Amino acid sequence: MARYPANGLTLEQAEAITAAARAKGRELKLQPLTVVVLDAGGQIKSVQREDGSSLLRPEIALGKAFGALSLGLGGRELARRAQSMQGFMNALSDIAGGRAVPVQGGVLACDAGGTILGAVGISGDVSAQDEACAVAGIQAAGLKPDTGDPE
């Protein structure tokens, strides 16, 4: 029987990221979060929308993860580029069908060698807090987060 190859994050890793990110949100007493985890091919591995999370949070979280994964840059760098390179980011948005959201809260999930395995997008609180939860989730899965800031 033919099988598809693994494409980055495993379901087990995605579930660990989601659980730890939500736990961090509860620890910080944040607004209800929505967590989206994508594999390296941009496919959804996990989506969880906490009770009370507003209507478009899944789309926003997906856009944060998709934007980061699309350019291989964390959300912080995407936000900087959105300010300094508006024409390029508008074109990216058009090419991506409006799915790329260039703000904090989209974090790349990498292995120890820096290979991108997927991305996490979180929406629900302020972007910096969303990002903190994504980082916590990625680290809890034993992976390295890339927020778009130099190490």
Automatic annotation (TrEMBL):
<dbReference type="Pfam" id="PF03928">
    <property type="entry name" value="HbpS-like"/>
</dbReference>
<dbReference type="InterPro" id="IPR052517">
    <property type="entry name" value="GlcG_carb_metab_protein"/>
</dbReference>
<dbReference type="InterPro" id="IPR038084">
    <property type="entry name" value="PduO/GlcC-like_sf"/>
</dbReference>
<dbReference type="InterPro" id="IPR005624">
    <property type="entry name" value="PduO/GlcC-like"/>
</dbReference>
<protein>
    <submittedName>
        <fullName>Heme-binding protein</fullName>
    </submittedName>
</protein>
